[in-house]
Amino acid sequence: MLSEEHQNMMLAYLSGLRRGPRLRSVEDLAALSPRELLQLARRVDEAALGLLIQLLKCTGRGESLFAKLMGDHEEDNRPLVDEFFARYYRSVLALPEGARQFNPLELYLPVNTLDDLAFVQSRQAFFLRQTCAVINEYLDLLFGGNHAFPAGEQEKAWTYFWGKVMSR
Description:
Layout: H1 4-17, H2 26-30, H3 34-43, H4 46-57, H5 65-70, H6 78-93, H7 104-108, H8 117-122, H9 124-129, H10 132-143, H11 154-166
Helix pairs in contact: 3-6, 4-6, 10-11
């Protein structure tokens, strides 16, 4: 959620990019049609795209403007939608060039927390939702070796993991 100050700065920035009346509130932004929003987003600099996404996610009546952009569109808006989400992926979701792909288990089950059994147990559901490839990579990192739990064997991998944690 953007602070009111950041919202106002983004609205001023967006107002400078568009033709038409100044955007004075998030309601003014919400009043734009999906096509107008997409055309405005096209003009936003890559450095400001993340802030625009945050603004769109916290703005709108009932559904966020971001959800409005993800919804059904007229066929002539399709290229704008595709372009917007390609930029969104590259700017906000994609890893920087040369960055190492992170393993979500490294973030949610860091090595330094394995002594806290209650914490580790609370992460079981998250562990089980990961693919076996992700789990195997995490187990390799923690315990060395070459773990090869096949697809669909998350429960067995958890049992193995829990046993190793308990024996520490």
